[in-house]
Write a structure and sequence with these properties.
alpha/beta, 6-stranded mixed sheet, 16 strands
Length: 415
């Protein structure tokens, strides 16, 4: 056979092969087009009960809205890649769920990394730990059976007055209500009768949505808290690196160190402030100045008012050096000691605060930091919480006296 004939034979064979290939491809394409498992849907979703389907709609911004309709309980997917919409999950901006879906399968939407929030209808009673991507806020209404589950955002039309996770609708979008996050760092002069908790109660009663935490170890100094190899320092480093959204951090030094070891006090506070600034986006730091008390005042040869005044001056000096405001709790204690000796602010050891002392501390901190006028604060600390045992005669009258003194301490005047 000549080369010319051989070439023509090859061309003919290639043409026949291409024709057959295209016909088969077209047939397969048609077949896939009639199925429910195309690359862009719609899809039948595996269920334990009922029937569920999903489809994609244009979101108007080069992305998709993934809508799930029908009723039933979605099966789990072995991995995110097994969800039928996986190939387009990067373009899914939101997820809309049927009012009759009862269960969301694990890994169903975990690859939808651009879906920042999803609203679960009240019909949903269960979803998997990886049903959604880690950054997706799972939102429900108060009537949902999941409303009390940890990590779930609950609908609130107005800015909430209690701590928790809340959302609302603004311009047809889910908006998360911001929560103020507060951290107390200190020792037994903070954790006795839970001054941090009392601060949170006062804040919430005045309309602040606040989550209040503490890192406290008895007798610990700020230098120890500033050392990552220390037990307390390691916990602080862990908290500061895990999150960057603390709004307020309060530092309380060991009870006499600002007088006896001022340079070490300033150094420890300064290191903590630097670390806070390095890790937190928008956090304001305060110093919590404590009070004089009998045992230590005798050791350093000062009466209680003098000890407290020297502490206050040391805190003010450190505050000026570091650019921090000071919560003058000790000043309020001295005012009570001198004008209302019948109110016992110290516990049986004459050192740590009684419940009344802790309440006064929380009032001064809340007024200095949040601007909450203690005279009209709805939370008066009375009656004593269940389980609290304190010899102090803490009454509504005592509460009002302490509120007025907290006010005058911070403002320098008034009743």
């Amino acid at each position: 056979m000549s080369e010319k004939k051989a070439f023509h034979s090859f061309i003919g064979f290639a043409a026949i092969f291409l024709t057959v290939f295209l016909a088969v491809f077209a047939l397969c394409s048609c077949s896939r087009g009639s199925s429910t498992q195309t690359a862009i849907g719609p899809w039948n979703i595996p269920t334990r009960k009922g029937e569920l389907t999903a489809r994609l709609d244009d979101d108007g911004n080069y992305g998709y809205v993934l809508s799930v309709s029908g009723s039933g309980e979605m099966e789990d997917f072995a991995s995110a890649k097994d969800a039928p919409w996986y190939s387009v999950s990067g373009r899914i901006s939101s997820i809309a769920l049927s009012d009759e879906i009862k269960r969301i399968g694990n890994n169903a939407f975990s690859a939808c990394t651009h879906a920042n929030a999803v609203i679960l209808p009240d019909s949903v009673r269960e979803f998997g730990p990886q049903s959604f991507n880690g950054g997706c806020k799972v939102c429900v209404y108060k009537s949902s059976p999941l409303a009390s589950v940890e990590g779930i955002y609950v609908y609130s039309e107005d800015s909430p007055r209690e701590a928790g996770l809340f959302w609302h609708i603004d311009n047809n979008k889910v908006v998360i209500w911001d929560t103020m996050r507060v951290l107390f760092i200190g020792n037994s002069f903070t954790y006795t009768f839970d001054i941090d908790r009392l601060f949170g109660e006062i804040a919430r009663s005045a309309g602040f949505l606040a989550t209040v935490e503490r890192i406290t170890i008895g007798a610990h100094t700020l230098s120890q808290f500033a050392d990552p190899s220390d037990e307390g320092g390691a916990e602080i480093e862990k908290r500061l690196t895990e999150r960057s959204d603390y709004d307020i951090i309060i530092l309380q030094e060991q009870s006499v160190r600002p007088i006896t070891s001022y340079e070490q006090f300033l150094d420890g506070a300064g290191k903590l402030v630097k670390r806070i600034k390095d890790t937190q986006k928008n956090c304001k730091v305060y110093l919590y100045a404590t009070w004089g008390y009998p045992g230590q005042s005798q050791v350093i040869g000062q009466d209680i008012p003098t000890m407290e005044r020297n502490l206050r001056e040391a805190y003010a000096k450190a505050g000026s050096a570091l650019g921090l405001e000071v919560c003058n709790v000790g000043k309020a204690f001295t005012e009570v000691f001198t004008t209302h000796g019948e109110i016992n602010l110290l516990g049986p050891d004459n050192k740590h605060p009684s419940y009344a002392g802790s309440y006064l501390s929380a009032l001064v901190n809340a007024y200095t930091i949040l601007g909450i006028d203690p005279r009209s604060c709805p939370f008066d600390g009375y009656p004593l919480p269940s389980g609290v045992k304190d010899g102090t005669d803490f009454s509504p009258e005592t509460s009002m006296i302490l509120k007025n003194i907290a006010y005058s301490t911070v403002t320098g005047g008034g009743k």
